[in-house]
Design brief:
Shape: rod-shaped
Helix content: 55-70%
Low-confidence stretches: none
Largest sheet: 5 strands, mixed
Number of strands: 11
Number of helices: 12
Distance between the termini: 36 Å
Order of helices and strands: HHHEHEEEHHHEHEEHEEHHHEE
Strand content: 15-25%
Strand order of the largest sheet: 6-8-9-11-10
Length: 458
C-alpha cells in the first residue's frame, strides 16, 4: 500500500460526520414513516370529536330556533355557511328520504329511530367522516367532512416534525465535527509520534488521554519506543562485540601471515606459526558460520532434514567428545541417559549442534573441579535435552535475556570467560526451528541449567 493510497482515505472525522449524518437522515425517514399512521389516526379521532360537537351544536341551534323544515329541506343558509367554512356539508334527513351519501340504509334508519351515528363512508368526492344526530320526530341532522382534510392536517404535522429534525441535524453536524476533532486529537498525536519513531527518534513519549481505547494506544506506543531503544541498544552492543571477536583472529592471521611473507619467522617456528594461523582461521570460520546460521534461522531458506533420531544415542556420541575436552580442564562430565531409546523425528545435525553449543558454553564457565551434566529424558510431547553445570550460574535478569544475541557476552565480558555471544542465541533459534523451545534457569548443581524441549515430530 503506497502513501498516496493511504492519503486518499477519508479521515475519522469525515467518516464520523458522514456516518452520524446518515444515521440521523435514516432516523428522520423512519420517524416520518412510523409517525404518519399514528398522527393520521390521532387526527381522525380529533376530527370525529370536532365533527360530533358541531353536529350536537347544529341540533341545539335548530331546536332553539324551532326550525321545522319541509321534507329534505337543507339547513338554514347562515348555519350552512358556518359549517361550510369548516369544510363540513350538512343536511336534514327525514323519514322516507332517499339514500344518504356516505351512509348505509341501516345507518339512516338507526339515526331516524333516535340513535346517534358516528361512521366513515365514501361518496363521489371520496371518503368522508359522518356524524348523524336525531332531530325532532322522524328527522336527523347529518354532517359530513372529507377525510382528505384530515390527511392534509396529518401531513402538515409530519412536515413540521421533519423540518424540526432536519434543523436539528444541521445543528448537530458542526457539533459532531468539533466533537470528532476533539476525540481524534490523541490519535493524531499518536500518528505523529509513530512517524517520529519511524524516522529514528526513540525519546518519543505520549501523554495518555481521551477514551480508554485511545489512551491504551498511547501507552502501547510508549512501550514500543522503550522496547525499540532497548532492542537497538542490544543490537549495537552485539555488533560491537562481534566486530571485536572478528577483529581478534583477523589481526592474528594478518600479523603472522605478514611475518611469514617477510621471512622474519625463524625456520624452526614456521610450523608453530602456521598452526596458530590455522587455529585462528578455524575460529574465524566458526564465527562466520554462527552468524550465517543466525541469519538463516530468521529467513525463509532455513531448512531442516527430519529423520527418525535416537536421542539417547545422540547424547552418548556427544558425551564421548566432550568427556575428553572436559577432562583437559579438570571438569567432570556426567551423563543422564534414559533407560529406553528415545526415538523422535527431528534433524539430528541441528539437535547435535544444540548440545555442542550448550556443552561448550558450560565448559567455558566451569572452573576446575566442577561438574557438567548432559541429560536426556522423555516428556509428554517429545523429549528434553538438558545441560547443567556448577559454574557461576545466572541471575533472574540473565535468565530473561539468556538467548538474546550478545547480551550475556556484553554483560560479563571481562568478568568471567565468555565466547562470541552467539552460542546461546543459536540454541534458542535452533530449538524454535525444530518446533520446540529453550529455557534457562538454575541447576541443582549450583550453576546454570539450559533445557531444550523437542517435539516428537519436527
Amino acid at each position: 500500500m503506497t502513501p498516496d493510497t493511504i492519503s486518499d482515505r477519508q479521515s475519522i472525522v469525515t467518516r464520523t460526520v458522514l456516518m452520524t449524518s446518515a444515521i440521523a437522515a435514516l432516523a428522520i425517514v423512519i420517524a416520518g414513516v412510523i409517525s404518519y399512521p399514528l398522527v393520521r389516526s390521532t387526527a381522525l379521532t380529533q376530527a370525529h370529536n370536532s365533527l360530533a360537537r358541531l353536529a350536537d351544536l347544529t341540533v341545539s341551534a335548530l331546536e332553539r330556533d324551532t326550525f321545522l323544515p319541509a321534507q329534505n329541506e337543507p339547513l338554514p343558509r347562515q348555519l350552512a355557511e358556518t359549517l361550510q367554512a369548516e369544510d363540513v356539508t350538512g343536511y336534514i334527513v327525514m323519514s322516507g328520504a332517499a339514500e344518504v351519501p356516505g351512509m348505509t340504509r341501516k345507518q339512516v334508519d338507526r339515526v331516524l329511530s333516535g340513535s346517534p351515528v358516528t361512521t366513515e363512508g365514501r361518496t363521489r368526492e371520496g371518503e368522508v367522516l359522518v356524524e348523524a344526530r336525531p332531530f325532532g320526530i322522524g328527522m336527523a341532522v347529518v354532517l359530513e367532512q372529507p377525510v382528505s382534510v384530515v390527511g392534509v392536517t396529518a401531513i402538515d404535522v409530519i412536515r413540521r416534525v421533519v423540518i424540526a429534525l432536519i434543523l436539528g441535524l444541521l445543528i448537530a453536524i458542526p457539533i459532531g465535527y468539533v466533537a470528532a476533532r476533539r476525540l481524534t486529537r490523541p490519535l493524531r498525536a499518536a500518528r505523529d509520534a509513530a512517524n517520529e519513531m519511524a524516522k529514528g527518534s526513540r525519546d518519543v513519549r505520549l501523554e495518555p488521554e481521551g477514551p480508554q481505547e485511545i489512551a491504551d494506544i498511547a501507552v502501547s506506543l510508549n512501550r514500543l519506543s522503550t522496547a525499540l531503544s532497548v532492542s537497538e541498544g542490544r543490537q549495537r552492543d552485539f555488533l560491537l562485540s562481534v566486530s571485536h571477536e572478528l577483529r581478534t583472529p583477523l589481526t592474528a592471521v594478518k600479523g603472522y601471515a605478514e611475518a611469514m611473507a617477510d621471512g622474519v619467522v625463524p625456520a624452526e617456528d614456521v610450523e608453530r606459526t602456521a598452526q596458530t594461523v590455522v587455529a585462528e582461521a578455524e575460529r574465524l570460520d566458526r564465527l562466520v558460520s554462527d552468524l550465517l546460521d543466525l541469519a538463516r534461522l530468521g529467513a525463509v531458506d532455513f531448512r531442516v532434514n527430519p529423520v527418525a533420531t535416537d536421542i539417547d544415542e545422540l547424547v552418548a556420541d556427544a558425551a564421548l567428545v566432550w568427556a575428553d575436552r572436559a577432562a583437559k580442564h579438570d571438569v567432570e562430565l556426567r551423563v543422564e541417559r534414559p533407560e529406553q531409546p528415545l526415538i523422535v523425528t527431528t534433524d539430528p545435525m541441528r539437535a547435535r549442534q544444540i548440545l555442542d553449543n550448550l556443552a561448550e558454553n558450560a565448559l567455558r564457565v566451569s572452573p576446575a573441579g566442577s561438574v557438567i551434566v548432559l541429560a536426556a529424558r522423555a516428556d509428554d510431547l517429545g523429549v528434553i535435552l538438558e545441560v547443567r553445570d556448577s559454574g557461576p550460574g545466572l541471575t533472574d535478569d540473565d535468565v530473561s535475556v539468556a538467548f538474546e544475541p550478545g547480551v550475556l557476552h556484553e554483560r560479563y565480558r571481562g568478568v568471567r570467560p565468555v565466547g562470541t555471544g552467539l552460542g546461546l542465541a543459536l540454541v534458542g533459534k535452533l530449538a524454535g526451528g525444530l518446533g520446540g523451545s529453550a529455557e534457562a534457569g538454575a541447576a541443582p548443581e549450583g550453576g546454570a541449567r539450559f533445557t531444550v524441549h523437542l517435539p516428537a515430530a519436527t
